[in-house]
Design a protein that fits this description.
single chain, 167 residues, alpha+beta, Alpha-Beta Plaits, 2 domains, 5 helices, 29% strand
């Protein structure tokens, strides 16, 4: 078996059920002959860098897997036939991979997900600390205005207009 990764772009007008059907069919082809999916990420609808088949957006799917070269050829043949797939690209990552290598790759993928979640939580915590450490004057300026504050501001504006008219 060899290790590959494929990114394919589906039409953005497809429903979630249609997207899942395409992904399931693709995974079924790749799983033939003891092939295994290492990771599958649905990136969702994103703006394309250039028009593809008169579309400005596309639904991106990333798949990392280990399978036989014949299965990859069959998947790409079906991609060329299926009108819902606008574009695809397959890259061979390794000439050979065994069961231990597949498990190690899955472990790396799961570790990367955990690290990304921790980094996101850390960023959110730092943003919260920044908002808590602002000076009181800044917090007061950002605070929503109450009815009393609005009435006081209106009274100030009226008195300023009256003073300018009497001068």
């Amino acid at each position: 078996m060899r290790r590959y990764e494929t990114i394919y772009i589906l039409r953005p007008t497809m429903s979630e059920d249609e997207v899942n059907a395409v992904i399931d069919n693709t995974n079924a082809i790749l799983s033939n002959d003891d092939g295994q999916i290492i990771s599958l990420d649905k990136w969702g609808v994103r703006t394309l860098a250039y028009l593809i088949q008169k579309e400005t957006q596309g639904y991106y799917v990333y798949c990392n897997y280990a399978t036989e070269p014949g299965n990859v050829a069959e998947m790409e043949r079906k991609f060329r036939i299926d009108e819902s797939i606008m574009k695809y690209m397959t890259v061979k990552l390794a000439d050979s991979i065994d069961a231990e290598g597949i498990e190690a790759a899955r472990g790396e993928y799961e570790a990367a997900i955990v690290a990304a979640a921790e980094a996101e939580a850390e960023t959110a915590r730092k943003d919260e600390e920044k908002s808590d450490s602002k000076p009181e004057a800044t917090k007061a300026a950002e605070a929503p205005k109450t009815e009393e504050t609005l009435n006081a501001e209106e009274a100030t504006e009226v008195s300023e207009k009256t003073e300018t008219k009497s001068d």
